[in-house]
Structure formats: structure tokens, C-alpha cells
UniProtKB/TrEMBL annotation:
<keyword id="KW-0808">Transferase</keyword>
<keyword id="KW-0949">S-adenosyl-L-methionine</keyword>
<dbReference type="InterPro" id="IPR029063">
    <property type="entry name" value="SAM-dependent_MTases_sf"/>
</dbReference>
<dbReference type="InterPro" id="IPR035996">
    <property type="entry name" value="4pyrrol_Methylase_sf"/>
</dbReference>
<dbReference type="InterPro" id="IPR000878">
    <property type="entry name" value="4pyrrol_Mease"/>
</dbReference>
<dbReference type="InterPro" id="IPR050714">
    <property type="entry name" value="Cobalamin_biosynth_MTase"/>
</dbReference>
<feature type="domain" description="Tetrapyrrole methylase">
    <location>
        <begin position="29"/>
        <end position="193"/>
    </location>
</feature>
<comment type="pathway">
    <text>Cofactor biosynthesis; adenosylcobalamin biosynthesis.</text>
</comment>
<dbReference type="InterPro" id="IPR012818">
    <property type="entry name" value="CbiE"/>
</dbReference>
<dbReference type="InterPro" id="IPR006365">
    <property type="entry name" value="Cbl_synth_CobL"/>
</dbReference>
<protein>
    <submittedName>
        <fullName>Precorrin-6y C5,15-methyltransferase (Decarboxylating) subunit CbiE</fullName>
    </submittedName>
</protein>
<dbReference type="InterPro" id="IPR014776">
    <property type="entry name" value="4pyrrole_Mease_sub2"/>
</dbReference>
<keyword id="KW-0489">Methyltransferase</keyword>
<dbReference type="Pfam" id="PF00590">
    <property type="entry name" value="TP_methylase"/>
</dbReference>
<dbReference type="InterPro" id="IPR014777">
    <property type="entry name" value="4pyrrole_Mease_sub1"/>
</dbReference>
<keyword id="KW-0169">Cobalamin biosynthesis</keyword>
Length: 429
């Protein structure tokens, strides 16, 4: 159903103000001339020439401002809302629309566009997420998963906290503080350096993959941004399309031939399809692949946008090569579980493809939302179920026994059975 247009003069005009306080749209002067109400933060109200006698509302809690705006619309009084940058980009437009207000938007340059411009980098393949007024973890996991992410930050959820969470991931960070103002500062840094200092609000953070240089950088350049021959920043591959976290074009539950593996030691495609579905990978989630081996499960979770830590005790396992082959960023942690799990960031879901009950107990002790386990030996099923239930998980399970088509001499076809596997899924209520 299409909403009918509002009466003339009853629109709320939402105007973006750039970081330096300059209105970006020439239509503001005309809108202000007839405005009966102007709403905005105190700094924005001070940045524009308000008409004499015009009523104003300085934003604090939004509800009183929404009430005043509704009353203005009902009375046919033109109203203006001033906001930072592009107000339809993680901004106030969403809340105003949800309140049922009829809007016209005159945007300025967003802070994300501004910080990429300061860096001289394209951003059409980047993901943009926000940590403003919400849990930091989805934004952090997006930075762990994707090669180019812009984060809108907030006090307590900014470059310091994001840097601390990105230690161990090869990332170069760019922090833009007070963009467009005389106090503007744009700083290239590392996760470790970002975590160890305070940053001025407001600021925007870029997280970019930082592949290791072929040769160590000498002297002061060791801590600087790595550049190419022309001095242009060099980063890992950014997706060339406009779907930075879309489902992979090649699909998932890929055949075993899509991965290097040893002596068929790989989660079969039929089992992997169910396991990945149970792990629920998506942008903003962190998944552990414990006993990764070839890394097929973790890699397919990464292809679906999740951040992935692959734990594997054998340093010669092909997980790194497979991740590179599929062009995903999987953090590989080499060491024996359960000891190596202690220092890892908290996961949303865990796949346990190897190890005994001590590994499963260590995983359950971290309280992930979901735990998925594959078991070939039946005598291990009951102890695993009891352990998960004792840890507070509701457990369901099934046996998968696939039979694949195989050719016989003379053109006949038979079914060739794969080894049956029990898949257990533990979910916290």
C-alpha cells in the first residue's frame, strides 16, 4: 500500500551538516526561511542562521522532539531536523520514518565517505557497520571477517576497543578524529597501537587487511603504512562487486576436491552442509573450527560472512592454503586443544571436528550460543550428549549416512556408501 503524499508545507526537512558545521545543501536557506520549528543537536543549531522567532528543540532524548515534530506536521508548520553528515546513513532518518513523519532529506557527505577520501581509497567494496548504541561484537567480527570495513564508533565502542579485539588478525587501521574540523586528525595504526591509547570522539575507524610485506620494512618504515612503488597503500584484495558480505557465488557444501586434504580426512560435503547450517554463519558472528584439518567447515562459514578462528595442532595442515585458495580470511591458531583455546576471543558458535571430551568440555565452558560436534565412533556419542546437557545445552542429533552414485563397468551405476557420521547440535536455551 502506498502512503499518500502529505499536505503542502507539512514535510519535515532533514538536513545534513558536515563535520565542520557547514550545511551541504543550498536548499537549507530556503527551508529555514519558512521554518516554524528547527530540531538538532546544540552544535548544529549554533551552526546555521535561525530565522527570528523560530522555535527550536535541542536534541537529548528523542521522544520529546518526535512529539514536537508530529504536532508541527499536524498543524501544517514546516519543520527542519539538523543532523550530522548523511542523516539517512545509520542516522536519524530511520527513527523519523519509524515515527511516521513525512520527510525530505538534504544530505551532506557522510563521515565514512570522508574518511575513505582522506585515505585516498575506494570504498565501493567495503562493508559499513556501526557500534553506536549497540553490542560491539558484531562490528568487531565484521572487521575480523572482511578485508575492508568502516565502523561508526561510540564512546566505549571505538578504536581502543576494536583494536584490542583485532590483535592477532593482520589488519591496518585508519582512525579519523573530528573529521572536517580544525581538530581533524587522521592516523594510520595497528590493532596493538590502537588498543593502547585514547581517541577523541567522534571518530570513524577503517579496518583493512594488511598482508605481510615480502621484505621487512627498515627503520621508521617498519611501523608505517606499507606502500607500493608509487606510494599507494597496499592492502589485501577488496571485493570488486557491491556485495561485500553476500553469499558466495560458488555456493557452499563444496565437493572434497575443492580442498587440499590428507587421506580423505575432511568433513564430507553432505555432512558439511548440515554442520554449516547448524552453525548459522553470517556477518557479525565469530565461529571456531576446532580440529580444523583442511579447514573446510571454517572456510565455508567465512564464505558466508562469519569471522573464523581455525584451531589445528598440525602446523603442516592445509587449512591456510585452502583459505587462500578460496580467498577468505581465516585466522589459524596452531596448538593443541584444549590448552590453546584459553586465549581465544569468545565465539558465537563452535564446530568440534576433532579431540576428546576434554576439548568439548573446554568449548562448553566458554558458553557459545551453539556447539556442533561430528562423531564417527558410537561409543563417544553418549558421553558427548551428557557433557553438553550438563553444561546447560539442549542437544539434538542425527546420523548421516550418504551413498553416492558410482559407475560400474558396462554403463551400470551403483551406490557407494560413505562412512556414517553422527552430528550433535547443542544450543543454549
Amino acid at each position: 500500500m502506498t502512503t499518500p503524499p502529505p499536505a503542502a508545507g507539512a514535510l519535515v526537512t532533514v538536513v545534513g551538516i558536515d563535520a565542520a558545521g557547514r550545511p551541504a545543501h543550498p536548499g537549507l536557506a530556503e527551508a529555514l526561511a519558512g521554518a516554524g520549528l528547527v530540531v538538532g543537536a546544540a552544535r548544529h543549531l549554533a551552526a546555521v542562521p535561525l530565522p527570528p522567532g523560530c522555535a527550536t528543540v535541542a536534541l537529548g532524548p528523542l521522544t520529546p522532539a518526535l512529539d514536537r515534530l508530529r504536532a508541527a506536521v499536524a498543524a501544517g508548520t514546516p519543520a527542519i531536523v539538523l543532523a550530522s553528515g548523511d542523516p539517512g546513513f545509520f542516522g536519524i532518518v530511520r527513527r523519523l520514518r519509524a515515527a511516521g513523519l513525512p520527510l525530505r532529506v538534504l544530505p551532506a557527505v557522510s563521515s565514512v565517505a570522508a574518511v575513505f577520501a582522506r585515505a585516498g581509497l575506494p570504498w565501493d567494496g567495503a562493508a559499513v557497520v556501526t557500534a553506536h548504541g549497540r553490542d560491539l561484537r558484531p562490528a568487531l567480527n565484521a572487521c575480523r571477517a572482511l578485508p575492508a570495513v568502516a565502523v561508526l564508533t561510540a564512546p566505549g565502542a571505538g578504536a581502543t576497543e576494536l583494536g584490542a579485539g583485532l590483535v592477532g588478525w593482520p589488519r591496518r587501521l585508519l582512525v579519523g578524529e573530528h573529521l572536517g574540523t580544525p581538530d581533524e586528525r587522521v592516523t594510520w595504526t595497528t590493532p596493538e597501537e590502537a588498543a593502547g591509547r585514547a581517541w577523541a570522539d567522534p571518530h570513524v575507524l577503517l579496518s583493512l587487511t594488511d598482508p605481510p610485506a615480502r621484505d621487512p620494512l627498515p627503520g621508521p618504515a617498519a611501523a608505517a603504512l606499507r606502500t607500493g612503488e608509487a606510494g599507494v597503500p597496499v592492502f589485501g584484495a577488496m571485493r570488486a562487486d557491491n556485495q561485500p558480505a553476500a553469499a558466495p557465488t560458488g555456493g557452499w557444501a563444496l565437493p572434497e576436491s575443492a580442498y587440499a586434504h590428507r587421506a580423505s580426512m575432511i568433513t564430507k560435503a553432505e555432512v558439511r552442509a548440515l554442520v554449516v547450517a547448524r552453525l548459522r554463519p553470517r556477518l557479525g558472528r565469530l565461529i571456531w573450527d576446532v580440529g580444523a584439518g583442511s579447514g573446510s567447515v571454517g572456510i565455508e562459514c567465512a564464505l558466508l560472512g562469519a569471522a573464523v578462528v581455525a584451531v589445528e595442532r598440525d602446523p603442516a595442515a592445509p587449512v591456510r592454503a585452502n583459505a587462500a585458495r578460496h580467498r577468505v580470511d581465516v585466522r589459524v591458531v596452531t596448538g593443541g586443544a584444549p590448552a590453546v583455546l584459553a586465549g581465544l576471543p569468545a565465539p558465537d558458535a563452535v564446530f568440534v571436528g576433532g579431540g576428546g571430551t576434554d576439548v568439548l568440555a573446554a568449548v562448553a565452558a566458554r558458553h557459545p550460543e551453539r556447539v556442533v560436534v561430528t562423531l564417527a565412533a558410537l561409543d563417544r556419542v553418549a558421553p558427548a550428549v551428557h557433557l553438553l546437557r550438563a553444561a546447560g545445552y539442549a542437544v539434538e542429533g542425527s546420523q548421516l549416512a550418504a551413498a553416492r552414485l558410482a559407475d560400474l563397468p558396462g554403463g551400470s551405476i551403483r551406490l557407494a556408501a560413505t562412512n556414517p557420521v553422527v552430528v550433535l547440535t547443542g544450543e543454549r536455551p
